[in-house]
Specification:
This protein is an alpha+beta fold. It is built from 5 helices and 4 strands; from the N terminus they run E-E-H-E-H-E-H-H-H. The strands form 2 sheets. A two-stranded antiparallel ribbon has the order 1-2. Helix 3 packs across helix 4. The protein is globular, with a radius of gyration of 16 Å. The mean pLDDT is 90.
Length: 147
């Protein structure tokens, strides 16, 4: 793969612990994050009152990001500088992704890496049980809450 990189932006619902939207790109830029939210808003039409938490990465402090969220009724919550604990939920997910879907394999292409990431997110949401969710998968937990 050389110097080629993929960047993943993901949105996690902390209630069900599922990844509700993600976007993979060759560039770590504002478009990466904005496309992720665009996907989330298409899937979940009414996000009024949702609190969106992020770190202080340049994408999340941009005017485009700060202008976009209020237009759909979402509220912005942001970590203090240098406080990594505020992002523990996402850092935990990224750690699982790397340990279970990337590091154990000899990935030889960007396409293979992207396929592994997409397959892991599906597995994480639909098959990977979580103790925090009473030994249910995130999708099972969400269904149980809705019933």
């Amino acid at each position: 793969m050389g110097d080629q990189r993929l960047y993943l932006s993901a949105i996690k619902d902390l209630c069900g612990n599922d990844i509700v939207a993600f976007h993979i790109s060759h560039s770590n830029d504002n478009e990466l994050v904005l496309k992720t939210f665009e996907k989330a808003f298409k899937q979940h039409k009414d996000v009024t009152g949702v609190i969106v938490h992020s770190d202080q990465g340049f994408q999340y402090t941009s005017h485009a990001y700060h202008d976009m969220l209020p237009t759909v009724g979402a509220q912005i919550s942001m970590s203090r500088r240098g406080n990594c604990l505020d992002n523990a939920a996402m850092e935990s997910f990224f750690s699982y992704l790397k340990a279970e879907a990337l590091y154990p394999y000899d990935i030889r292409s960007i396409e293979e890496a992207q396929q592994r990431i997409e397959a892991f997110i599906q597995f994480y949401n639909e098959e990977r049980i979580q103790l925090k969710l009473n030994k249910l998968t995130p999708i099972e937990y969400r269904r149980q809450l809705a019933a």
